[in-house]
Amino acid sequence: MDSIVIHGGNRLSGSIPVSGAKNSAIKLMAASILTPEPLRLTNMPRLADTRFLGALLREFGIKVTEGDGADGQETLFDASQLTSTFAPYDLVRQMRASFNVLGPLLARTGEAKVSLPGGCTIGARPVDLHLMALEAMGAHIELEEGYVTASAKNGLQGAEIEFPFVSVGATEHALLAAVMANGTTVLKRAAKEPEIGDLARCLMAMGAKIEGLDTDQLVITGVTSLKGTDWSVIPDRIEMGSYALAAAMAGGEVRLTKGRADLITALTDPMRRSGVEVIEEANGDVVIRRDPTQRLQAVDVTTEIYPGFATDLQAQFMALMTLADGESVIHETIFENRFMHAPELMRLGADITVSAGEARVRGVNALHGAQVMATDLRASMSLVIAGLAAEGETTVGRVYHLDRGFERMEEKLGACGADVRRIKGEGPEH
Ligand SMILES: CC(=O)N[C@H]1[C@@H](OP(=O)(O)OP(=O)(O)OC[C@H]2O[C@@H](n3ccc(=O)[nH]c3=O)[C@H](O)[C@@H]2O)O[C@H](CO)[C@@H](O)[C@@H]1O
Ligand SMILES: C=C(OP(=O)(O)O)C(=O)O
């Protein structure tokens, strides 16, 4: 297993290009199942998650070709021949969003057998709302031996679906199924994360009829077939926010290019309140500036559905607060167990108390390098961020979590002067 070694204390100076969003790319990849025509995704991040999903799509007979085009990294999907609708456990367990192939497979072929996704350390993460939506659209669903077997021999039917609470994955899954259902589907209490808007707009470019974009009610009029298109993946707001926090933690001045400032205002507002300079330039770049000799102020945050503070930035924000002046109260409202990074940050000297969905972070004067372990994707980035400001050497283990969602992280931070190296390890990554 690889590890990341950081020597803290360097100020950062330079530019970091923001990649395409993982959480959009993997849903757009699932959309390729819906059309026999080629779908070309540009601004594609090269991540473990896109690799896992690419392997699963190939299992269905889809040709997946990665390359470099005029707009950078791109991937072409050709699902003209679907030879299988079976998603085996070994491929789905690697990444829970693989489960979202179920709806498109059903919509295109009327049948699918997909492994239930495994749990992960941030919470129980059931898929009951996904199944509820597909059943409401007329799918016959059986659960057996860890697999969902689903059929809709006469096609999926439009339905009115009201989610009891907001779920990103269930909204996307229902959308992917409804675009080719017979009749109209109404999704109430839909999630409105930017990645859902990206998926919906790509589906519309493929010929889908969707109203209510970026609102909590989507109205989808099913069509009988979808065509191919070219689509550029939206910038990764979580990666962008993570590097903004890295720059704030280390101090110095970093320019974030190819991102979108409007996608991270729920983060930049509290960053500004804590004392970080965030400059939005006319060309769309965002400059993060901080004098590391000036102490930041503690700020409270509560994770919420979009446009609130993203749960996927909570761990990284907590890292920043470990060195702030005062006590920061961080509420996690989306996942019941997303404070696994707190004990690891404490190994670096942070002072944090966690109880029932709330972490109290009392800023300390300094962090000290230590060996720590990544417990999930965003937790791993919080440890890297803390390591940038810690005195001495920090070694982050279980880096395969980080590789799920951060492309060339060492290279991007290294180009700004951070001393971050990857040590190749022996043995399996999972
Ligand atoms: C690949 C991807 O896009 N992942 C994102 C997606 O995850 P994901 O789509 O899994 O997150 P959801 O919005 O579905 O989860 C929200 C809450 O609903 C619960 N729930 C969800 C579905 C369901 O059928 N039943 C149920 O109880 C979950 O356990 C969780 O407590 O949104 C999360 C919330 O912004 C982000 O942290 C993840 O990075
Ligand atoms: C939790 C995340 O991803 P996933 O839903 O794929 O586990 C994430 O991107 O932070």
From TrEMBL:
Keywords: Cell cycle, Cell division, Cell shape, Cell wall biogenesis/degradation, Cytoplasm, Peptidoglycan synthesis, Pyruvate, Transferase
Positions of the catalytic residues: C120
Annotated Enolpyruvate transferase domain residues: 7-413
Keyword Transferase among record annotations: yes
Superkingdom of the organism of origin: Bacteria
Top-level enzyme category: transferase
EC number(s) from the headed UniProt entry: 2.5.1.7
Span of the signal peptide: none
Record-linked InterPro entries: Enolpyruvate_Tfrase_dom, Enolpyruvate_Tfrase_sf, MurA_subfamily, RNA3'P_cycl/enolpyr_Trfase_a/b, UDP_GlcNAc_COvinyl_MurA
NCBIfam families: murA, PRK09369.1
Family indicated by similarity: Belongs to the EPSP synthase family. MurA subfamily.
Protein name in the entry: UDP-N-acetylglucosamine 1-carboxyvinyltransferase
Organism lineage: Bacteria, Pseudomonadati, Pseudomonadota, Alphaproteobacteria, Caulobacterales
